[in-house]
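Follow-up to my earlier ticket, as requested here are the two runs.
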Amino acid sequence: MQVATAHYDFLNYIDLNRWNSCYHQITETLALNPQSVLIVGKGDKVVETILSKQNLNVTTFDFDETLQPDILGDVTNIRKILENSIQKRGGKFDVLLCCQVLEHVPYENFENILQQLQSIAKNVILSIPYSSVKYYLHMRLPIVKEIKMQFCIHKFWSRHKFDGQHFWEIGFAGYPKRRIIKDIKKFFHIKKQFLAENNPYHLFFVLQFKI
């Protein structure tokens, strides 16, 4: 589902929580020591700009031509669209970054998209909205210094309603985290998963190609 270009205006789009999510997108990408990165979902260009300044070969993919991506296309058909590009490159991208994108596509496309991503990149970083009731415990003590604990309760009693942008979100009835993890594991090894500490609405997965 296309998002209006004005949605990505800096003052409207970026707040402290989203900055935190951008930070994780950048640091998790750099931790994989890539040379080439494909960003699916161009967004506001913040992550793209910073990664490009790290001397990485960054390519962007989006279906909104007003965002001027390097490659224009629909994620549900991404493998075919990128086929020639990958052949010219001589292989897969080192990292594919796909954050806050797949919820804009009906869930029945989820597995098919994952299978396509598997053929495009060696490593994939996903973030997906995680709607739940969250509780935090954060204490600073003289000896142990700091304790952080987080509890999440799925909204299993509530069904997600299409809001014009998101077809689904983890945590709602029908979309428990275990289902999403099970589907991801059909195609990838999950190297890491975590909630962005200051933006727990974003659940991150760092995935590796499954042979």
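Run two:
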Amino acid sequence: MERITISIDEALAHEFDQLIAKQGYKNRSEAVRDLLRSHLEEQHQASDQLGHCVANLSYVYNHHERDLAERLTALQHDQHDLTLATLHAHLDHDNCIESVLLRGNTAVVRDFANTLMAERGVRHGQLNVVSVEIGDSHNHAHQHPQPDDPVHMLSPDQSGHAHIHLKPKN
């Protein structure tokens, strides 16, 4: 780890200390690293729309809105290559919250999220994007129980399949 030294005035240092205490950081270094990562990620995303990302799209919607649940599901099915998983929870009699995990080209993910959030009846939408580098595809073996004997597992060469590794950029 590289060590750097910075100088800031007392008022800013005091305000920073209050912020990091409120957010639960153990020290200034952890807080500065997170601030730098966040700022660098914002800059990277602003300049690199051709890159790839993983993202979480969360939104609240009124499930009584005419055909809205069906429209949202259809949008996700239409972009099944982007949609990894969806979590759905009921907030009250009228409102639901969904969180959709996405991955793909950053510009395409943002376009999809904007389209979904623009649907009539969707409120409080927010997209959290993390830029990633696509790593090598590797074959991994996963063990699955034998149907007649759940204790014994298949050997790795019988159940291997490829995975793409996505590594956060910073």
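The only thing I checked on run two: Residues 19 and 158 are 53 Å apart (CA to CA). Let me know what else you need.
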